Amino acid sequence: MTFPELYILRHGETEWNAENRMQGALNSPLTDKGLRDAARQAAILNGLDLTGFQFLCSPQGRAFQTAGLALGRIAADIHTDDRLREIGVGDWSGVLRDGLPVPEGKDPFMAQYEIAPSGEGFARLEVRCRAFLADLTGPSVLVTHGITSRMLRSIVAGEGAVSVPTIHGGQGCVYHLKDGVQKLLE
């Protein structure tokens, strides 16, 4: 399947990111660094020709706040789509990561999302992200979350797009995906 050209942004750092808490469907405000992250994304995007692009955002507060800061000067309309929300972490919403089980394996950080009690899990997240991508009608700028961004990028550009595990990857930068190739804009 081919996909339209995409620019994918992760929301800026939140208070809970800084505290190392699982957020999922819950929200916490952007930190001062998070505000700078969004301003950096705005500077990156301001240098691009985004004529004909649509602008889509997760409805969750941290992403919507980032979208306003990063896209406010370039987007006439920013539409929300619930499928861009962060992966659900069920019973672990709001819990400090340090108190959670750490599964063995090459990326225990990611494995926590898979084993979260009453969580969404990666299979359901992938179904949601594939449905979202299938509905895109043209080039788009997306403002979303860390794990949802990873899933979207792995679907569009393959597993190599997310091969380097990082807990806060994507804040303050923009991922450009075109013709199955990902490029990091910083």
TrEMBL record:
Cited PROSITE patterns: PG_MUTASE
A molecular function (GO) term: phosphatase activity
Positions of the catalytic residues: H11, E86
Documented EC number(s): 5.4.2.12
Keywords, sorted A to Z: Isomerase
Annotated residues for binding of substrate: R10, H11, G12, E13, T14, E15, W16, N17, R62
Keyword Repeat: no
Enzyme class: isomerase
Top-rank lineage group of the source organism: Bacteria
Matching Gene3D superfamilies: Phosphoglycerate mutase-like
PANTHER family in the record: ADENOSYLCOBALAMIN_ALPHA-RIBAZOLE PHOSPHATASE, BROAD-SPECIFICITY PHOSPHATASE YOR283W-RELATED
Identification of the protein by name: Putative phosphoglycerate mutase
Organism of origin: Yoonia ponticola
